[in-house]
Specification:
Number of helices: 13
Largest sheet: 6 strands, mixed
Strand content: 15-25%
Radius of gyration: 21 Å
Oligomer: single chain
Length: about 375
């Protein structure tokens, strides 16, 4: 196969025609509808009721942590009447959370000695539960190549509290929610509850919507009515959760650069392996040959599939909600990926929903969402 034929073959293989994208979007809408009715579905419909009041005293200092697929942030925050003051912020690289022990010890390592309340914004599926008037979550499964062995089926906040007490003889109260839930409450008000959508396109992908005063976590990265590429099949087979997280493995930043490396290795073009999807975007930006073109194609495929889910959410919400939707977005792929937002808009226009949505221009809601989780909605 000559070099140009190689590129043409992968262009045709990776970029899906409009009719197939429309079919994917329709399947996604059906999966949301099934999940909302309690039927079997590859996506979730996890209903969260956010506390109205806060356990914090005026002047009390608390801590917020956010743990994503590759990013950790923490902030020390002071409640002051009806507002808060961020006293300090920090970040760190995260290890691979292969076990509950690694995860809990990482939390304790970054726990400020003087705080009594911790709000944890966690980028993994949680089944919401109330405990001591705080929102907690039962850990459903790992993802993004983090296994969390030992934590599955346990209440995350309670597990952290018990460990801190046994190890440090300290009583710390912990509230926990999925990152899309935190992202949603960081932006939504009573007036915009039904017209706000929280979306994450980064290391992983997911969305949360507001309905009837609740926040609904869709866990959309698990949507499985999506065609696998040959490279995606290899990624799935080599992953910690074969057969799960199928959309993430075709869209998300944890995997896109791996598609490039697999394609390059199988076809022996003069492409160097990449270490991250950030490098994939940088390669696409160069626009200087076949390697750049392949990077661009992989990123555009991701954007086209992400547009299927965004358009599907618009269609689902339009059954009950009038007016345009505001998508509050997080994730490095969305914000920093090569021409990613422009490609999303291109496909949203193809679906005919570009006039029905707007993207919030504000970034970095993760700490803010964790603050709102502990402050309550009042």
């Amino acid at each position: 196969m000559v070099y140009n034929d190689f590129m043409t073959a992968y262009f045709d293989q990776l970029l899906l025609p409009p009719q197939e994208l429309l079919s994917i979007k329709n399947s996604f809408v059906q999966e949301i509808q099934d999940a909302s009715r309690g039927k079997e579905s590859s996506v979730s419909f996890l209903r969260h009721t956010i506390p109205q009041t806060s356990p914090l005293k005026d002047g009390e200092t608390f801590q917020v942590m956010t743990i994503g697929g590759s990013v950790f942030k923490t902030a020390l925050v002071k409640k002051q009447r009806n507002t808060t003051i961020v006293l300090s912020e920090d970040d760190d690289a995260i290890p691979t959370f292969n076990s509950e022990q690694i995860f809990i010890e990482f939390i304790v390592k970054h726990l400020v000695p003087t705080i009594t309340y911790l709000s944890l914004n966690l980028a993994y599926p949680l089944d919401p539960v109330f405990r001591n008037n705080l929102l907690d979550g039962i850990f459903v499964r790992g993802g993004k190549e983090h296994r969390f062995d030992g934590l599955i089926g346990k209440k995350v906040g309670e597990t952290i509290e018990d460990f801190v007490f046994s190890r440090l003889k300290r009583k710390v109260w912990v509230t926990v929610a999925n990152d899309t839930v935190c992202l949603f409450i960081s932006e939504a008000t009573t007036q915009t509850w039904d017209t706000t959508v929280a979306g994450i396109i980064g290391t992983g992908t997911n969305y949360a919507i507001g309905m009837n005063g609740q926040v609904i976590n869709l866990q959309s990265g698990s949507f499985n009515k999506i065609p696998q590429t040959p490279s995606g099949k290899i990624i799935d087979q080599e992953s910690i959760n074969p057969g799960k997280g199928m959309t993430d493995k075709e869209i998300a930043g944890a995997y896109l650069f791996r598609h490039f490396n697999i394609i390059a290795k199988e076809n022996n073009p003069p492409f160097s392996p990449l270490a991250s999807t950030k490098e994939l975007s940088q390669l696409a930006e160069k626009n200087d040959g076949g390697a750049s073109q392949l990077a661009q194609i992989i990123l555009e495929r991701s954007a086209s599939l992400a547009a299927c889910q965004i358009a599907g959410i618009v269609e689902f919400k339009q059954q009950t909600t009038r007016g345009p939707l505001t998508f509050v977005m997080e994730g490095a792929l969305f914000w920093e990926g090569w021409q990613y937002k422009a490609m999303l808009r291109k496909y949203l226009k193809m679906f005919g929903v570009d006039k029905s949505i707007k993207f919030s221009p504000i970034r970095h809601h993760s700490i803010r969402g964790g603050i709102k989780l502990l402050l309550g909605l009042s």
